[in-house]
């Protein structure tokens, strides 16, 4: 299957109401060109799973500010004030998840696990409505997997078959989100021929990547 496609074809798979994993940490490693295309398309009522909501003019914050997001599942929202305002006005649902827990809930979905057990959040509002499981005399919260319809990632170097290298800080949520989504779209900063990436340097295997778009 041809994986390198136009931006229009790639985002045609992102539809209203979907749950979408988006890589990045404070917009580093976030596929900005894909976000621009989604804004132009006007897709709406998205549930976004990400570390954060970026900034008002960068990253996921642009989708939030354009009223395209129904719900955010993230570890913090402080760098985009509009996220907090929408939450307080009841215009957008926000589920705050401790950062490590968020990463492991996504990872659990990718590995087909039924969830993870963690002491993080016990005795706080994080524990509300969640099952507590005792293991060897110690209590843990059962945190369930977070799966997505689509994952939108940024790859530094991507070969034509879909093998990906993530550089420096972009090695954040990008690699672990891919296995946890039904469909994966990677925005490539650089596309190379098959064989140009040393197999030992591959951080995300081509088996997880459905479509590649070239960053501008």
Question: Could you walk me through the main structural features you see in this protein, from its secondary elements to its overall organization?
Answer:
The strands form two sheets. Strands 1, 2, 3, 4, 8, 9, 10 and 11 form an eight-stranded mixed sheet that branches. Strands 5-7-6 form a three-stranded antiparallel sheet. The chain is built from six helices and eleven strands. Helix content is 20%, strand content 28%.
Features:
216 residues, alpha/beta, eight-stranded mixed beta sheet, three-stranded antiparallel beta sheet, 11 strands, globular
Termini gap = 23 Å
Task: Compute the CA-based radius of gyration.
Answer: 17 Å
Q: What is the averaged pLDDT score?
A: 95
Strand content: 25-35%
Helix content: 10-25%
SSE pattern, N- to C-terminal: HEHEHEHEHEEEEEHEE
Q: What is the tally of beta strands?
A: 11
Q: Give the biggest sheet.
A: 8 strands, mixed
The rough form would be described as globular
Furnish the topology, listing elements before pairings.
Blueprint (H helix, E strand, L loop, with lengths): L6 H5 L7 E4 L9 H10 L4 E4 L11 H5 L3 E6 L6 H8 L4 E4 L2 H12 L5 E3 L13 E4 L2 E6 L4 E12 L4 E2 L8 H4 L3 E12 L18 E4 L2
Parallel strand pairs: 1-2, 1-8, 2-3, 3-4, 8-10, 10-11
Antiparallel strand pairs: 5-7, 6-7, 8-9
What is the compact description of this entry?
By secondary structure, this protein is an alpha/beta fold.
């Amino acid at each position: 299957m041809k994986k390198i496609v136009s931006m229009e074809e790639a985002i045609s798979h992102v539809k209203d109401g979907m749950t979408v994993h988006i890589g990045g940490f404070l917009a580093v490693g976030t596929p900005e060109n894909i976000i621009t295309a989604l804004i132009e398309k006007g897709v709406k009522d998205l549930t976004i799973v990400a570390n954060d909501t970026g900034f008002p003019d960068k990253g996921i914050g642009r989708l939030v500010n354009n009223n395209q997001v129904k719900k955010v599942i993230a570890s913090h929202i402080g760098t985009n004030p509009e996220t907090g305002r929408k939450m307080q006005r009841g215009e957008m649902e926000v589920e705050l998840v401790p950062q490590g827990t968020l990463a492991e809930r996504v990872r659990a979905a990718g590995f087909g696990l039924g969830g993870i057990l963690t002491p993080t959040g016990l005795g706080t509002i994080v524990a509300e409505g969640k099952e507590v499981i005792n293991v060897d005399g110690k209590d843990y919260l059962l945190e369930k997997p977070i799966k997505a319809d689509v994952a939108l990632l940024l790859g530094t170097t991507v070969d034509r078959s879909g093998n990906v290298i993530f550089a420096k800080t972009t090695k954040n949520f990008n690699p672990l989100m891919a296995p946890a989504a039904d469909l994966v779209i990677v925005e490539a900063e650089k596309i190379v021929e098959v064989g140009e990436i040393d197999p030992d340097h591959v951080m995300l295997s081509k088996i997880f990547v459905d479509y590649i778009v070239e960053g501008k």
